[in-house]
């Protein structure tokens, strides 16, 4: 659908842009009519019709992009379209003039209109060509917006792929290490192994709940990180100390799921796991 016809506001502004042409068309007609009232009556309806006819140039412009079309083809196609549209407009105006005559609103309207047809035709052709230029500008604007939307969608898909890849790397790594720790504690400290299994279950439940979400509040992400640290605290005991400093106002900010997970894992790896007891 034509982008101007798709929005009432755009259509209103487009029709208003044709209003200044009404006195010009009426001035051509008043030379024969000798009456401004009759001239405006003859000019207004056909001018509105021609405004809609010029919208048809959009479909021709879309079928013949400037960058991909031969200049001669553009010239011939739009030239013929301008001539045909102008001719149709003049004939419609003549029909309207005959209607005014038959209705006895302006008994000599048809007689006064006929001598002005050539001048009106000469005005209509360049008006159509101006409309063609404006349609190409409109198409360029629409294409620019579409390109921006595609670029944004591509960036979002890239970020989604990165997040999914990060999850795929983090979750199995942590799970395997934790299960090995549970197996090791099962023989030496069954109570700690049971506690660790329960905490691991809670952590996995939280992880699964984040699977289909693109963003979560920071407070929820912190709670998820705390669940991870609770599992690790069973392994490291008093060696693991956590101090949390978070502004309360920031807890509602949206962040990607598991954005803190690699930071916490790296802190544990470099702060505890590589150090001796």
* N- and C-termini, Cα separation: 72 Å
Order of strands in the sheet with most strands: 1-2
Q: Percentage of helical residues? A: over 70%
Biggest sheet features: 2 strands, antiparallel
State the shape.
rod-shaped
Uncertain segments: none
Tally of strands = 2
Task: Itemize the secondary structure elements and their pairings.
Layout: H1 8-18, H2 21-33, H3 36-55, H4 57-63, H5 71-102, H6 109-113, H7 117-188, H8 190-209, E1 216-217, H9 218-236, E2 254-255, H10 261-273
Antiparallel strand pairs: 1-2
Helix pairs in contact: 2-3, 3-5, 4-7, 5-7, 7-8, 8-9
List keywords for this structure.
277 residues, two-stranded antiparallel ribbon, rod-shaped
Describe the structure.
The protein has 277 residues and is mainly α. Helices cover 77% and strands 1% of the residues. The protein contains 10 helices and 2 strands. It has helices at residues 8-18, 21-33, 36-55, 57-63, 71-102, 109-113, 117-188, 190-209, 218-236, 261-273, and strands at residues 216-217, 254-255. It has a two-stranded antiparallel ribbon with strand order 1-2. Helix 4 crosses helix 7, helix 7 runs antiparallel to helix 8 and helix 8 packs antiparallel against helix 9 (218-236). The chain is rod-shaped. 20% of the residues are buried. The model has no long low-confidence stretch (mean pLDDT 83).
């Amino acid at each position: 659908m034509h982008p101007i016809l798709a929005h009432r506001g755009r259509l209103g502004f487009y029709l208003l842009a044709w209003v200044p042409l009404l006195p010009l068309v009426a001035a051509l007609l008043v030379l024969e009519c000798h009456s401004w009232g009759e001239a405006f009556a003859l000019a207004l309806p056909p001018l509105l019709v021609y405004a809609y006819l010029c919208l048809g140039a959009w479909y021709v412009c879309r079928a013949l992009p400037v960058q991909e079309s031969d200049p001669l083809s553009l010239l011939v196609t739009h030239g013929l379209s301008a001539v045909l549209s102008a001719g149709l407009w003049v004939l419609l105006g003549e029909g309207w003039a005959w209607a005014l005559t038959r209705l006895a609103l302006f008994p000599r309207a048809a007689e006064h209109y006929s001598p002005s047809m050539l001048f009106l035709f000469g005005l209509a052709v360049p008006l159509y060509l101006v409309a063609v230029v404006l349609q190409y500008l409109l198409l360029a604007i629409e294409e620019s917006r579409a390109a921006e939307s595609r670029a944004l969608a591509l960036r979002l898909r890239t970020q989604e792929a990165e997040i999914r890849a990060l999850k795929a790397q983090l979750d199995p790594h942590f799970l395997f290490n934790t299960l090995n720790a549970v197996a090791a504690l099962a023989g030496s400290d069954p109570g700690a192994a049971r506690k660790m299994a329960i905490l691991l279950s809670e952590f996995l439940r939280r992880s699964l709940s984040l699977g289909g979400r693109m963003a979560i509040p920071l407070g929820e992400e912190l709670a998820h990180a705390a669940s991870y640290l609770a599992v690790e605290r069973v392994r490291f005991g008093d060696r693991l100390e956590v101090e949390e400093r978070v502004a309360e106002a920031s807890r509602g900010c949206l962040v990607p799921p598991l954005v803190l997970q690699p930071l916490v894992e790296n802190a544990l790896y470099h702060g505890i796991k590589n150090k001796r007891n």
